[in-house]
Amino acid sequence: MAKANYISFLGQILNDPQLKMNQNSEIFQGRLVMKVVRRFVDENRRIEFSDPIIVTGNPKVAKMMTNFKKWDFCSMKGVLTTMNVTRSWFCPECEYRNQPVGMYTLITPIFMEKTMDMSHAFSTSDERDQLLETEGIKILKSHNEVSNIVHVIGTVCKMTELYDNGTSATLNFQIAVNRSYRLIEGDPDVKTDYPWVRLYGDKAREAARVLSVNSTVFIDGSIYTKMVKKKTYCEKCGYEHVINELVSEIHPYSVEYLHNCNLPADEYTEDYTNFPG
Ligand SMILES: [Zn+2]
Q1: Rounded mean pLDDT, 130-156
Q2: Among candidates 147, 149, 151, which has minimal Cα distance to 10?
């Protein structure tokens, strides 16, 4: 099967990058938050800002972050990866140690570069942070075509029911994306990632008719990251506990139906019988 997993960001850095060094003072890990934007996401044609976290365990990529400062603009090429993570918590009722495993979707950078140095902007103002944030939003809006891009080919492995109240509709599905690259920071045995996709409006209604488990799609979209409160219960006594979880999902511009899709025959059968001449 064809493989694709490509992210391209142009965004504003929201913190000084957190860099970790080993005993020899060599940087081996880097982490930063970046604000990106995409053009209209739903039938109301609203633009959508998102603050994804970019983490790398690759020393070469972490070094690229060393000259970045809060409010600078940078471009990034990366891939979407998923990882199972255990998040233990002690139950305050019965002191049992719960160890739920959850899946995280990560943005793994391959290349990063500063594209706009903001260190001298508004440097004498008392309201520097506020001005740089406002300026950043303005710059991002004018770059919404290139700020937040993801291209993936995946096979549907899970689908939710279509939610449709007549005016708005949403559909969520999970895709299996085969890795076409090897990550230094990853487990070499992991060959597949499982990101979630969310569709709105007529696109959601159409996909609910056309897609099923095992359908293969190409998605041209963007990444959306949000903080969600997830309820979990103590395995031993049932005590309710809330975990804050950072969730990243794909919000498509378009979905191309490649294989095993329930399309009317005339949509994909090309007719070669009527060539002129
Ligand atoms: Zn308990």
Answers
A1: 95
A2: 147
> What is the distance in A from the centroid of ligand 1 to the CA of 233?
8
User: What number of H helices and E strands is found in the chain?
Assistant: 4, 16
Return the domain boundaries, the chain: 5-264
Taking the C-alpha atoms of residue 7 and residue 219, their distance in angstroms, rounded to an integer, is: 12
Contact 258, 216 (CB under 8 A): yes
Rounded to the nearest 10 degrees, how much is the dihedral formed by the CA atoms of 121, 127, 132, 138? -120
CATH level 3 topology of 5-264:
OB fold (Dihydrolipoamide Acetyltransferase, E2P) (2.40.50)
CA of 93 to the centre of ligand 1 (A): 5
Instruction: Report strand pairing: 169-178 vs 163-164.
Output: antiparallel
**pLDDT value for 39:** 86
In the reported structure, the alpha carbon of residue 94 is separated from the centroid of ligand 1 by a whole-number distance in angstroms of 4
92 alpha carbon – ligand 1 mean position (Å): 7
pLDDT at 41: 62
Q: Which two structure tokens, joined as six digits, stand for 84?
A: 């199972």
The DSSP secondary structure of 209-259, one letter per residue, reads HH--TT-EEEEEEEEEEEEEEEEEE-TTT--EEEEEEEEEEEEEEEEEEEE
pTM check: above 0.85: yes
pLDDT of residue 264: 76
The pLDDT value given to residue 265: 65
Q: Is the pLDDT of residue 245 over 90?
A: no
Lookup: tokens for 102: 């959850």
Q: What is the pLDDT of residue 186?
A: 72
Ligand 1 centre from 240 Cα, in Å?
8
Q: Chain centroid to CA 129: how far? A: 26
